[in-house]
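I am writing to request your help with a piece of structural work I have in hand. A protein sequence and the structure tokens that stand for its backbone fold form the material at issue. Please examine both parts with care and let me know of anything in them that strikes you as inconsistent. The record follows directly beneath this note.
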Amino acid sequence: MDKRQQIIEVATQLFAEHGFEKTPVSTICEKAEISKGLVFHHFKNKNELLREVFVHITQIIEETDKSDEHVSENDDRLEAMIHSIFDGMTVPEHRKIYQFNFSVMVHPTTRAIVVDLIDERYQGLQVSTEEVFRSLGHSNPVVVTKMFIAEIDGIAMNYLLNEDFPIEEIRQEFIKKYC
């Protein structure tokens, strides 16, 4: 792993544990065993590092969601996509990363730093999910996709904020609803 990637991974871990605003660059340097100069060689400032951390988290989410691409039948494809989404959000070692991701997207200061990246991620999700609903013959795949994504966001938020959230039961009801 090169130094730039190491910085991003350490920053992701520390931001997830302590928050963006409460994690000084010096702590990232100490944990990564690198100098501040090296951080600022790769990133103009801490905000640019946050943007790269957000891109890194997006890659983690996308990697986790890839399993739905291997199912060819439409009904199975939607169910596989739902399983993939729920599997991704319930990976124990990703919980803090997903909590941090949620925090970045709703906090006005951090949201302003990554708003274009949030929009880009959402557009990609909208297009791929809409294509599934379109292939299933939904009369209004655009609206159904927006509803589907909003429900997933709400489920994810509740799961991340509540330790006793019944995620597996909700997964089964979600599959019944959409499949």
Q: What stands out?
A: The domain at 3-178 is CATH 1.10.357.10 (Tetracycline Repressor; domain 2). The CA atoms of residues 83 and 171 lie 8 Å apart. The chain has one domain: 3-178. The chain has nine helices and no strands.
